[in-house]
Amino acid sequence: MRDYCIRPAGPQDLDGARAVMLDTVYRDFGTGYVPRWHGDIIDPDAAYLVPARHTLLVALDGADGEVVATAALDSRGPAHPPNPRHVAERYPCGTTAQLRRVYVRREHRRRGLARRLVAELLAFAAADGGYRSVYLHTDPAVEGAEGFWRSLGTVVHDEREEVTGSQGIVHFDVPLGALRPASPSPSTTSVPSGSPAPSVTAAAAPPSSSRPRPPGR
Q1: CB 88 within 8 A of CB 80
Q2: Distance CA 118, CA 131 (A)
Q3: Which of these, 18, 63, 72, 162, is most buried using a 10 Å CB contact count?
Q4: Do residues 159 and 214 lie in contact, with contact meaning Cβ atoms separated by under 8 Å?
Q5: d(CA 177, CA 165)
Q6: Among 190, 153, 187, which Cα is nearest to 170's?
């Protein structure tokens, strides 16, 4: 049985986290690095470590200490455009915790990592005290993504139902108490493998004006 350590990322983890994120946008999405959409990947320190209300979590393989999964949260609500106006108005900046970059390397998927990481993000948001809602959007074309998020939250807008201009993105609201972490707050947590979880992508649909779409838009 393989063990994993989940913890808030430190400076020593950023190269590994960046590698997971870049591998995902290149290999899984096939879009590669797009500067206007992936600035947080290149500089995760400024995006997630410096702001007090933001966080970046990493999962480390207990066998060799390699970063094998990431998950992030920030206080930026979805912008309009490209998101629907009513979604942007429902989730304003400052009081919205947006989940981002929930990425797990292929060889470490279906071991419960995504669910554990999201549980820690929700605990972080709850402890902040200023977040009133948790939002994310995902591309249902990503294997396992839609089912995973439907198991945790509620669809607030499905762009596949739009008559025109749809890019197929699904927008979700996730209750702050949807999951309970293994520890009281995002801290070093040993996570044994064996609990099944799908590959998921939060706020990280692959970019393009048709398909795919910009991550973290």
Answers
A1: yes
A2: 15
A3: 72
A4: no
A5: 34
A6: 153
β-strand pairing of 170-173 with 189-192: unpaired
H-helix or E-strand containing 69? strand 67-74
Please give the helix or strand (H or E) that residue 96 lies within, else none: strand 96-104
CA distance 79 to 182: 33
The pLDDT profile of the chain, 217 residues, written as one tens digit per residue, is 679 999 999 999 999 999 999 999 898 877 788 888 889 999 999 999 999 999 999 999 998 999 999 999 999 999 998 899 999 999 999 999 999 999 999 999 999 999 999 999 999 999 999 999 999 999 888 888 899 999 999 999 999 998 776 678 999 999 999 998 875 444 445 544 443 344 455 654 333 333 444 444 5
pTM over 0.70: yes
The encoded tokens of residue 88 equal 């942007």
